[in-house]
Amino acid sequence: AYQTFGPEQLSVQEADQFVTEQATIGALLGASPLPLTARELSAWVADHPALCASDDQASATAFLRDPPLPLGVKLGYRLLSDAAVSIIPSRITDILGLHPSPARSRIGGSVVSGLRWTLGSSPSWHLALVRAGAPVPSGLFRQPLPPGAAEVLRAADPSSAESPD
Fold it and tell me: Is residue 97 located within the same domain as residue 152?
C-alpha cells in the first residue's frame, strides 16, 4: 500500500528493511514462516496455498464493503476501500469476489494525497520517533500528539517536552 499510495516509493533496500523489521516482531510472537524480503512477502501473499473462499471470509468482506458508518464517512471510506482493493493480487480479489479498477486506484491515491496534505503525518509516528530517539523531520506533523505524549516526551528529554494539546 505504501508503494502505491505513499508520498514516494521505498527503495528495494528500504522495503526489505521494513519486511525484516516486521519479521523480527513476528518471530517474537511465534509466527512462521516469515518472509524476509519485500519480494518474498509479495509472493507469499499472492501465492499462499491456503487461500480459499469461506463463509467467514464472505462475512468479513461484506462487513468491510458496507461498514456501519454514517453516510458521509462511509462515502470517504468507500473511496479508500476501493483503492485498497485495487492493490490486492488478482488471485485474491477473485476469491473475495471483488472487482479492482485502475480508476478507483487513482481516485484513492488522490484521496490519500489530500488527507496527507490536510492532516500531515501521523502523530503516533511522531511519538514513535521521539520514543526511539530518532530525528523528527520538520514540517510533517500538523496534528497534536496523542494523549499521554507529554509524559513520553518528558521521559525521553525533559528539556524538549511539547504539550499534546
Answer: no
Query: Which three cell numbers, joined as nine digits, stand for 58?
Result: 464472505
The per-residue DSSP string of 109-146 comes to HHHHHHHHHHHBS-HHHHHHHHHHT----TT-B-SPPP
- 122-139 residue pLDDT tens: 888 888 888 888 888 888
Domain count, the chain: 3
Q: Which residues contact 78 (CB under 8 A, 6 or more apart)?
A: none
The CB density around residue 129, as the number of other CB atoms within 10 Å, is: 17
**Are residue 79 and residue 113 in the same domain, yes or no?**
yes
Q: What whole-number distance in Å separates Cα of residue 3 and Cα of residue 31?
A: 24
Distance CA 43, CA 30 (A): 21
Q: What is the pTM of this model?
A: 0.71
